[in-house]
Amino acid sequence: xxxxxxxxxIAAILAPAACSKKEAPAPETGPGAExxxxxxxxxxxxxxxxxxxxxxxxxxxxxxxxxxxxxxFEFTTGLSLDVDGVTLAGAGQGKTILDFAGQTGAxxxxxxxxxxxxxxxxxxxxxKGDGIKSKDSDRITYQYLTVEWSGEPDETNGAYGIYPVESxxxxxQNCTVRGASDAGIYVGQSxxxxxxxxxxxxNVAGIEIExxxxxDVYGNIARHNAGGILVFDLPDLPVMGGHSTRVYDNDxxxxxxxxxxxxxxxxxxxxxxxxxxxMANSDVYVSGNRFKDNRSVHVMLTAYTEPFTDENYNPLxxxxxxxxxxxxxxxxxxxxxxxPIAAALGGQLPAIMTDGVTRWDGGEDQTVNLVxxxxxxxGFINIGLGEYPINPANMRPSMDRPxxxxxxxxxxxxxPQDKS
Length: 420
Hints:
The protein has 420 residues and is mostly beta strands. It contains two helices and 33 strands. It has a 20-stranded parallel beta sheet that branches. An eleven-stranded parallel beta sheet has the order 4-7-9-11-14-17-20-23-26-29-32. α1 links the parallel β1 and β2. It starts with 39 loop residues before the first strand and ends in a 32-residue tail after the last strand. InterPro entries: Beta_helix (IPR039448), Para_beta_helix_rpt-2 (IPR022441), PbH1 (IPR006626), Pectin_lyas_fold (IPR012334), Pectin_lyase_fold/virulence (IPR011050), SO_2930-like_dom (IPR022442). This is Putative lipoprotein. Keywords: Lipoprotein, Signal.
């Protein structure tokens, strides 16, 4: 994502705007402690554990549970699972650790291409590529997992920690991801999604919902990322038109880590210090979150900014509701593309900002329904760009909240594998 505003254009903005963190969830005993004894295979730690585990995954039968012992086990190649109905379980997030520091390829640690899979109670560390990826895996469950990269955040870390794509009925719960050079928890081109009770920290993006529909993101902690939570829709992908995401009851705090994404990555443009970004999406409901100490801006609402040729893609926002959140601290050290905007506002941004784009490349204005239903003291600015590509002469900045039509909050997502 390139800068949404040119520094020269910001001079048009003249007036400044006025404008409980909870701890990480206590570790819970995962379902591995109560796994059924029928259809259970215990992977031996004797000999070559990596070979033993991959063989068990290859020979698994539908409905089987593969149990890994406690310990730290080294891998030089990635693992794969393509059998439906398999549960892969360890002894606990901090007890069974699959260490890929010696991985020779650039692939993921574990690739799943099967339905009705449960991944539970283990950790994956230092993969060269993504931590755990699942593709075309319906009714998949990620739970009680830790995926992390050692050391300081680095662009050579794998892009994604937990990475389900092109799937229906995705459940991510009680997971922790650290150090991903793109997104810690990423769900893309999927539908019917729950991401809850998880911690995403020290990633470029903590949690990202991209080109997906019907997602509930709640009860999470997104902290110490460059950007806390992202809801994006991008062009030129098999699935587009992301919509119907609810982001609620999350702690989105201190997302001030330097952006360490590789150059050219779409998230390389996310300003450090951003709590939430909604880009080119529709029917997004953001409520009951606790925004605290994000140094750039708590909420950014923006159209897609790059050139595109896909005639089926809509780069604009529509029906975005921001309501009943709390905002505290931050906003005093805006980074990246936001620096010149803040300079024009006296050095600090309001809690919520939008680019004000309502048309693309000379086209006609479209409805962009932004419902900003926050307390009067919560600061807001509409930069008033009007359209992309940018013409600074057309910019009309305003501190007034836009006229809008209320949007009813949709019903919660219900997943067939969710027994809670």
